[in-house]
Design a protein that fits this description.
- With 674 residues, this protein is α+β, with helices and mostly antiparallel strands.
- Among the domains are: 31-224, no CATH class; 230-266 and 477-487 and 512-674, no CATH class.
- It is 32% helix and 18% strand.
- The chain contains 15 helices and 23 strands.
- It has helices at residues 60-63, 121-126, 209-225, 235-251, 269-281, 285-296, 313-329, 332-352, 384-403, 407-431, 464-476, 499-511, 515-527, 554-568, 662-670, and strands at residues 31-33, 42-44, 50-51, 67-72, 77-78, 86-87, 95-101, 104-114, 134-144, 150-159, 176-182, 187-195, 229-231, 496-497, 539-540, 545-546, 569-572, 575-578, 592-598, 605-611, 616-621, 630-636, 648-653.
- The strands form six sheets. A five-stranded antiparallel β-sheet has the order 6-7-8-9-12.
- Strand 2 and strand 3 form a beta hairpin.
- The longest helix is centred in the middle third of the chain and has 25 residues, at 407-431.
- The radius of gyration is 26 Å and the shape is globular.
Length: 674
């Protein structure tokens, strides 16, 4: 990178009070600061270095060569892993941490803004109006908590050795030092401002850091004020939901949803389908509409949707994602526009499953293909998840055809789905197994074969094979669930669990009315988050390490948000289920569950639940666009409905055996319970 002018300045500003250090599961806890839809974000390493001006993603050793290190105190010790990052208000993309040197406490605040040169800072927060460059801010407040005067020191420097004139971090060729003598009870504040890319002749000395922090907070609060509101009595759960929304918006690049920031930084249909659903259900309609469009541009000439070469699940996932967008928006015109692509994808599946001859054991199924989810790369295996997703794609396309009045198409596609399910049934019978395996050859690790009832059911909820599959992964596969989470392996990875893939099994339990199992696994999922509310891809649980440093992971965040939303509001068989799986204590006296402006397949709804001394009071504004077949409110025997709620059927369930909450799951984890 080219040299740039001095961009590091010091000013007095008011910093937020640091809020403490909560539980953080990970030994490699990463975070991100960034802006909505910008091409890049700044990753913050586990030892609290900022990776500014580099696209290096997951390798911490490489990060040593291109990051900003912060040193503090009389000995200028570097920040390390012992300083736990948190978020302002528990969810804003403003990272907070503290460090202590004797009586002097150092409070750090890190966030991102558009460059001050932006023509319209409000628009620049929402979209890279003036290019993808942005400004990283690190503000520090040093406080002498002692009774005597004490020196305070800070240093900002680039980490790692460089050749002469090679300075990957803008303007840190020479470290920037600050020093003070702090009288008892006194404090001093300063900040540094570093752009992602050098800006020639830029001078931010007179910028108001407090103002830019206020603008950042104002912007993100404004985004969430326009979204659906979901608030539950568990503060950690609510904050993690808001942070999941922010994660999707920062990971999005010019409207295209990506899997991560600095890693998996590209569009995958497999991940993107769930991420777009998260945006839709969050009420972030504009972002969701932008994010769904790239699906339409990743269809091969033969009709197959694809982002991962040769893998067939994306074809069905794209059909489902397009259908889901049409259902949750009710936009018939949009569905009419994308229907030809859905139908072309269905035609591809119909042809592809006829490649095998009638006397083949794989007759009626998709051809063999590589599968990274199932860790079967040789292309010689027939993957159940590919068949499951393409069956789901047929059913979604058939439903879209019916909605659009294309009755001939709907009938043909439904007939094809019956034949496809028959081929699946015959193949499963030949395996001799009671459960679905990852591949028809019975090899691989479980992945797509767990998506039986979610995101839409392709088998009856009481199908014996579904029941056996849930039991297989929870109790047997590689030793069964660990820390409430499914195991995964590629044959080399040991002691690995995969939280976001667990959600597919947890959601199957939600479909089946197994509320206590859902609530239990919800809290195990929440356990596997950082103190900055970020989620991983997979975990080496024995060393509390997210593999490949994949934090924050977009799908990990989206699947958390989807799980919480459907525990509260869930569409099933044209019926709307409310509180299908919530912890009993969320309904205790004085507690409230608030859902406002939440999009559903029937239109937006609002729900207010308040616990009283005798039971619960419920206020519901039902959807108006389309009347569901029924609305069912699920309550425990000990918390019955006090008031009349027109048009709502109450389903009473048993009370849960234990209290499920975040402190309890931490205690269970530390006690070695699974």
């Amino acid at each position: 990178m080219a040299k740039s002018s001095l961009l590091l300045v010091a000013v007095v500003l008011a910093l937020p009070v640091w809020a403490g250090e909560p539980f953080d599961y990970y030994d490699n806890s990463w975070s991100v600061i960034g802006l909505k839809d910008y091409a890049r974000g700044t990753r913050i390493t586990p030892d609290n270095r900022l990776m500014i001006g580099t696209t290096i993603g997951t390798d911490e050793k490489e990060a040593d060569k291109a990051s900003v290190r912060i040193r503090f105190g009389r000995e200028l010790a570097p920040l390390g892993r012992e300083q736990t990052k948190t978020l302002m208000d528990g969810w804003l993309p403003v990272n907070l941490l503290t460090a202590q040197d004797g009586p002097v406490r150092y409070e750090f605040t890190m966030w991102a803004t558009p460059l001050p040169s932006a023509k319209d800072w409000r628009k620049a927060f929402d979209w890279p109006e003036d290019g993808d460059n942005f400004l990283n801010w690190i503000a520090v407040r040093a406080v002498n908590t002692g009774s005597e005067a004490c020196p305070g020191k800070l240093r900002f420097e680039q980490a790692g050795p460089y050749e002469k004139d090679e300075h990957p971090v803008p303007s840190l060729a020479t470290p920037r030092d600050f020093s003070w003598t702090l009288e008892p009870g006194k404090s001093v504040e300063c900040f540094v401002a570093i752009p992602w890319e050098p800006v020639k002749d830029a001078d931010y000395m007179h910028e108001d850091a407090k103002l830019w922090l206020e603008r950042t907070v104002e912007y993100w609060r404004g985004v969430m004020a326009g979204a659906a509101i979901i608030r539950v009595p568990d503060e950690k759960a609510t904050q993690a939901l808001l942070a999941a929304h922010v994660c999707q918006l920062i990971a999005s690049d010019h409207g295209e949803i990506h899997g991560g920031e600095g890693f998996y930084d590209e569009f995958y249909i497999r991940d993107g389908a769930y991420q777009v659903m998260e945006l839709e259900e969050a009420g972030l309609g504009d972002a969701a509409r932008k994010a769904i469009e790239p699906f339409t541009t990743h269809q091969r000439d033969d009709g197959c949707f694809e982002t991962q070469k040769g893998q067939f699940d994306a074809n069905g996932q794209a059909q489902w994602a397009l259908w889901q967008c049409g259902k949750i928006t009710g936009d018939r015109q949009w569905l009419e526009r994308v229907y030809p692509q859905m139908r072309k994808a269905a035609d591809w599946a119909m042809q592809a499953r006829r490649i095998a001859p009638d006397d083949s054991p794989y007759a009626g199924l998709l051809p063999a293909a590589p599968a990274d989810g199932e860790s079967l790369w040789d292309g010689k295996h027939h993957i159940l998840g590919y068949d499951f997703w393409n069956l789901r794609g047929l059913l979604c396309t058939a439903d879209a055809a019916a909605l659009l009045g294309r009755t001939d198409d709907a009938e043909l596609l439904l007939k094809e789905a019956v034949a496809y399910r028959g081929a699946i049934d015959r193949a499963e019978e030949r395996t001799g197994l009671s459960h679905f395996p990852p591949s028809w050859e019975k090899e691989g690790t479980h992945w797509g074969d767990t998506e039986t009832l979610w995101p839409t059911p392709i088998f009856p909820i009481d199908d014996a094979r579904v029941t056996a599959s849930m039991k297989e992964v929870r109790e047997k596969h590689l030793g069964g669930f660990r820390e409430g989470t499914i195991r995964w392996t590629d044959g080399k990875l040991q002691d690995a669990i995969h939280p976001y893939m667990s959600v597919y099994t947890t959601m199957a339990s939600l479909e089946r009315g197994e509320d206590e199992k859902v609530v239990d696994e919800f809290y195990w999922y929440l356990l596997h988050s950082t103190a900055t509310q970020a989620f991983p891809e997979g975990i080496f649980f024995k060393r509390r390490f997210a593999w490949s440093n994949t934090i924050p992971h977009g799908t990990g965040a989206s699947n958390y948000a989807l799980l919480l939303r459907h525990m509260l509001v869930h569409e099933q068989d044209n019926t709307l289920h409310l509180l299908a799986a919530v912890p009993d204590w969320w309904l205790d006296e004085g507690n409230e569950i608030v859902v406002e402006k939440a999009p559903t397949h029937f239109g937006p709804i609002s729900l207010h639940v308040k616990g009283t001394a005798q039971g619960v009071q419920v206020t519901l504004d039902p959807p108006q666009r389309e009347m569901p077949k029924g609305i069912v409110l699920h309550l425990p025997k000990s918390r019955l409905l006090e008031n009349a709620c027109d048009g709502v059927e109450v389903a009473v369930r048993d009370d849960q055996r234990i209290r499920y909450d975040f402190p309890a799951v931490i205690a269970r984890y530390r006690a070695g319970q699974q």
